[in-house]
Amino acid sequence: MIPQNEIREKAREQGVPVSTIERDYAQNWLLKALSSLPLLLKGGTGIRKVYIGDYRFSDDLDFTLLEGVENDELTNRIKNAVAIAREESGINFSDDIETQENENGFEISVYFQIMQRGESRTKIKIDITNEENEKILLPLSVRRIIHPYSDTLEAEIRVYTLEEILSEKIRSLFQRTRPRDLYDVWYLWDRVEKKKVFEILPEKFRRKNVEMDIKGFEQRKNDFKSAWESSLKHQLKALPEFEDVFSTVLGEVGKCVLK
């Protein structure tokens, strides 16, 4: 495990809380241990962990399950992965793992301590979507985990392409009001092959029975704005201006309707 001073220094350099760096570091070791499971990494964590090392930090780990697994079996496999991560990293991962089934799959809570003492723990939430609830439309990628810390971590993990991540982030804008989705769409828009995004976007929406209601999205502007700083300031050193981000995303996503 890296020294606590390294964690503090990283937090200072990145302009984020110490807990954000602790979680980011622990996530990497947990990802390495989970890489042998039939899971496909996606979402904001997928962007940071294997594509863009200086991307925003992420609180959760998001996956799509590649095969059917029962609750008990999945819990046991996660517990085994946590034990491996604890042994390999020296991080005090807890054996206390909580698993809940939901309409999309599973939500699993993993707890750990690095700088905390006593009963205080940091949580990593793992969201796993069942294979039947999400259709993967582009070939998956296998990429090396980016580990910007002084200890050695070498592992590869299966992950969505950036184009598939972006397509699901666009869909999410019309399903929920989470500023991180807005930020991710804004950031990724000029960094992907948009032709691929446009090709798979209709099926992504159809699969979840979601309508691309641009007017409804625009009407939720104040909801996004009110949660902008509280949702993202602990994940970024410099938060872009909300008005610039929203207007850009509104204009670009509006073009998708015309495709």
Largest sheet: 6 strands, mixed
Structural class: alpha+beta
The number of helices is: 10
- Provide the CATH superfamily of the largest domain: JHP933, nucleotidyltransferase-like core domain
Overall pLDDT metric: 95
pLDDT under 50 segments (min length 5)? none
Amino- and carboxy-terminal Cα gap: 50 Å
Name the helix and strand elements from N-terminus to C-terminus, one letter apiece. HHEHEHEEEEEEHHHHHH
The counted number of beta strands is 8
Q: How much helix, percentage-wise, in residues? A: 40-55%
Based on the coordinates given, report the CATH architecture of the largest domain.
Answer: Roll
Strand content: 15-25%
The global form is: globular
Specify Rg, calculated over alpha carbons.
18 Å
Count of discrete domains: 2
The CATH C-level class name of the largest domain? Alpha Beta
CATH topology of the largest domain: Nuclear Transport Factor 2, Chain: A
Structure notes:
This protein is α+β, with helices and mostly antiparallel strands and 259 residues long. It has 2 domains: 4-160, JHP933, nucleotidyltransferase-like core domain (Nuclear Transport Factor 2, Chain: A, Roll), CATH 3.10.450.620; 163-258, no CATH class. It contains 10 helices and 8 strands. The strands form 2 sheets. Strands 1, 2, 3, 4, 5 and 6 form a 6-stranded mixed beta sheet that branches. Strands 7-8 form a two-stranded antiparallel ribbon. Strand 5 (105-113) and strand 6 (122-129) form a beta hairpin. Helix 1 crosses helix 2, helix 2 (18-34) crosses helix 4 and helix 3 runs antiparallel to helix 5. The longest helix is centred in the first third of the chain and has 19 residues, at 71-89. It is globular. The model has no long low-confidence stretch (mean pLDDT 95).
